[in-house]
Design a protein that fits this description.
- Strand 15 and strand 16 form a beta hairpin.
- The two termini are 40 Å apart.
- The chain folds into two domains: 170 residues, Rossmann fold (3-Layer(aba) Sandwich), CATH 3.40.50.720; 254 residues, 2-Layer Sandwich (Dihydrodipicolinate Reductase, domain 2).
- The chain is built from 13 helices and 18 strands.
- Helices cover 28% and strands 18% of the residues.
- The strands form three sheets. It has a nine-stranded mixed beta sheet with strand order 16-15-14-10-13-12-11-17-18.
- The protein is α/β, with parallel strands linked by helices.
Length: 468
């Protein structure tokens, strides 16, 4: 396994060392190319699913046979855990491996067309920016970034560097979310002033969330093969503890964006797009169960939030309610279901309501079964182009190759969708009402919280300042 050390990189790479401005003659953005050369940053977990999806032409669920896409080639792998990296490398023995994405980009920028970022939330921004500064097309796992300034900077950068870009919220490529928007746009739902969405996590006994026995967590030995300093990246230094890695970083507001930040890009995608919600003016916590020992560190056990959106053109104000940790809206007879599922969303229309699961893929109008069957058989005017195979991976690759349009969930769209959630995460984290001035990117009623709009980063991890 080829593994270039970060120390050697920082000593020899000169102007392209961590956080430095990329030399203009190194920037290249290639489109309309025959074969897309991919670099993968974060190869395990969601990273594994993403690179598997991107290299796949077709997959038979029954036989588990995978046909590879001859137009996609993985040319470099990067992960801060050498054990995970070694496993992925077995599938691509000719692809160089790296523990530091900055080293990889410096060494291989001429051989890379696009980059896939599937790291923890707090490192999405740095990896995406470093890639786009070199003109690389970018696919990033949701949520798009860790704070609102990062979101807006990524949207600016994608436009500035002219790269194909996509936030990987799978449901946005589905027919289901297009159905919801078409039903709303055509007037079938009538005006929508109320939305309810719920998710059954976080599960602190599961794979993705945990609580330490004490705060700060007790220092533990760093597992062999893990570069803890690189894992922290821009985040403030702290001793290693298994409550952070693997996956459980979602438990910490400083590193992840809790259950709301993780799932809003799925569950709230349909109402955000259909209703043109934008950023909320106010988010208020209506219920909160917290770990009292570390209130602004560990995510809430359960919470209910109320998002308030003002008028948008001729669209009426909307109140959106988010429930998590076992909380759900009170079921209504007109929703025609004996009980609400573990995850879901209801857009309450004056004429008709629509329900989805945790993702928008299987959206349905709330009406008796026979009426719903007849409605689907009759059909409706489909005004929004469908994504072939409802596959966001092919949507991304086709856009780079010039055989398809720009993805629907671009950074411009994804930044707004994620920003909506992060205003809510702030209200959840500090258990307080947040009044948000989106035009000026400020919390107006708690100015001391504006430091979380743009969080400080460690030396050597600053990106994107030149775009403001």
């Amino acid at each position: 396994m080829k593994n270039i050390s970060r120390r050697n990189f920082l000593r020899t790479s000169g102007a392209i060392a961590a956080g430095a401005v990329v030399l203009p003659n190194l920037v290249s953005c290639k489109t309309n190319i025959d074969i897309v050369n991919l670099a993968v940053i974060g190869v395990g977990g969601r990273g594994f699913a993403n690179w598997q999806g991107l290299i796949t032409e077709s997959y038979n669920k029954e036989t588990k046979e995978r046909v590879l896409n001859p137009k996609v080639r993985i040319v470099a792998l990067c992960d801060v855990d050498e054990n995970i990296l070694a496993k992925a490398s077995k599938s691509f023995p000719d692809a160089p491996t790296y523990t530091d994405f900055r080293v990889m980009l410096n060494a291989m920028h001429k051989d890379i067309d696009a980059v896939v970022v599937s790291t923890p939330d707090h490192t999405h921004f740095a990896a995406c920016m470093a890639s786009m500064e070199l003109g690389k097309h970018i696919y990033v796992e949701k949520p798009m970034a860790h704070n609102i300034w990062q979101l807006r900077t990524l949207a600016k950068a994608a436009k500035h560097y002219g790269v194909v870009n996509i936030l990987g919220n799978q449901g946005h490529a589905s027919d289901g979310i297009r159905n919801v928007k078409e039903w709303y746009d055509s007037g079938i739902l009538g005006e929508v002033k109320e939305v309810h969405a719920w998710f059954n996590g976080p599960d602190f006994k599961g794979r993705y969330f945990s609580k330490p026995d004490q705060y700060p967590p007790q220092a533990q030995a760093v597992p062999e093969g893990l570069d803890w300093d690189l894992w922290l990246g821009p985040a403030q230094n702290r001793p290693f503890n298994e409550c952070y890695v693997p996956r459980r970083w979602r438990s910490w507001y400083e590193l992840g964006n809790a259950e709301l930040g993780d799932w809003c890009c799925h569950t709230l995608d349909a109402p955000y797009w259909s209703l043109d919600l934008g950023s909320p003016q106010v988010v208020s916590p209506l219920h909160s169960v917290r770990n009292t020992g570390m209130p602004d560190k560990i995510v809430t056990d359960s919470s209910v939030l109320k998002f308030e959106f003002g008028k948008r053109g001729n669209k009426a104000p909307v109140n959106l309610f988010w429930y998590e940790g076992g909380k759900k809206p009170e079921n209504r007879p007109e929703w025609l279901t004996p009980k609400l599922g573990g995850n879901g969303m209801v857009m309450v229309g004056e004429k008709m309501s629509v329900m989805t699961g945790g993702r928008p893929n299987d959206a349905r109008l709330i009406m008796p079964k026979e009426e719903w069957k007849a409605f689907k058989a009759k059909g409706w005017e489909q005004t929004i182009p469908r994504v072939p195979e409802q596959n966001q991976y092919k949507e991304f690759i086709n856009a780079i190759r010039g055989t398809g349009p720009m993805p629907g969930s671009t950074f411009e769209y994804g930044a707004g969708l994620t920003e909506m959630a992060l205003v809510g995460v702030m209200a959840q984290r500090f258990d307080t009402r947040i009044e948000f001035d989106a035009a000026n990117m400020k919390v107006t009623n708690h100015p001391e919280l504006n430091t979380y709009i743009k969080e400080p980063v460690r030396k050597g991890w600053s990106y994107g300042e030149n775009l403001w």
